[in-house]
Specification:
Strand content: 15-25%
Bound molecules: pyridoxal-5'-phosphate
CATH topology of the largest domain: Aspartate Aminotransferase, domain 2
Number of domains: 2
Helix content: 25-40%
Number of strands: 17
CATH class of the largest domain: Alpha Beta
Distance between the termini: 49 Å
Structural class: alpha/beta
Order of helices and strands: HEEEHHEHEHEHEHEEEHEEHHEEHEEHEH
Shape: globular
Strand order of the largest sheet: 4-10-9-8-7-5-6
Number of helices: 13
Length: 416
Amino acid sequence: MTTLSTHAISDPIDVARVRADFPLLAREVHGKPLVYFDNANTAQKPAAVIEAVDDFYRRTNANVARAMHALGEEATNAYESARDAIARLLGAPSRNEIVLVSGTTQAINLVAYSHAMPRLGPGDTILVTQMEHHANIVPWQLVCARTGATLKVAPITPRGELIVERFVELLTPDVKLAAVTHVSNVLGTINPVAELGRECRRRGIPLLVDGSQAAPHLRLDVRALNCDFYAITGHKLFGPTGTGALWAKREHLEAMPPFFGGGEMIREVRFEGTTFADPPHRFEAGTPNIAGFVGLAAAIRYVEALGIERIAARERELLAYATAALREVPGLRIFGEAQDKAAVIAFLIDGVHAHDLATLLDHEGVAVRSGHHCAHPLMQFYGVPATLRASLAFYNTHEEIDRFVAAIGRVRTLLG
Ligand code: PLP
């Protein structure tokens, strides 16, 4: 199985060695070496993750938490190791505060239906920001529609930064929960979550943080972030799809009724009534994505071995290099110029449709995303239907950025 030794924070990442850990990066697309710049959409998987999943099905496969045999115990231990790994990653005070779910979307829906809905009524509000992913908007709209509550939206600047003073002003007594992305999937903006959390806490307002785009790139500590709920998704964290987690403070989890009912989440079932397991199992009905979580545990170990600070440093450097190169392209506009920014660059070129450019880049072997990025309200704010988005990971290279920018130049001439 692929392993990595632990490195000192100051060592730069050995990119050639790290790229060799990701088999897919070696393939060609349309006869050209792949340049994978769609990491914010889903990240590639190291061999350690692929092998962990493969090994699970070859050697261990059994259901969790119910089989009285060796395989069942091994499967349960392997699956539960993901809970430990996620607790470490998030700096959670207890593994029992980690609910394993299918991804951020399910995590936020769980909070919306189980925590928020019973507390909401007409006149109440949920505060979100202009830069949220649909996963951090639509669940709140659904519970608002059922309860008579409404959404409030904290504004951003044209550079794509949250206007913190406005956010704080909007934290009035009607707000029953604030829900904010840690890192914008379009703008790359890193929001000052600890500061927002402090303001929420001062007013007794729970804060949910969508950490989908933060977990792969930043050192996390949910206590220092002053939040109440933190949601992550495994596939952006170099792990399998269909995995993710909700961290929630114990007092919240204990007060939350179950959202899904079924096996694994009960204490005793009688036709007259059922009693439920303690958190986190109360929220984990049914057979989970066992192999997926085994893979996610391997992904987190991989990130830990590489070192999140070294990952962040490498990505900061790639972001600076790519931003400088793109700024040289005539007619190219970048969306999102926050001071504190992750390696995500949304852009458009005057007179060129985003999808046309993405399709032509694909023929050059360059994978970028084009569209609304599940952030319609943000597109509306900028008055555009779509943008392109290049999102980088630590395994990307300067040479790939050069190829990407050269390809944009060629395509521009073709379309211009
Ligand atoms: N929130 C943000 C900021 C995202 O970027 C994404 C995924 O694109 C999500 C939520 C939803 O994640 P998932 O589809 O894995 O549940």
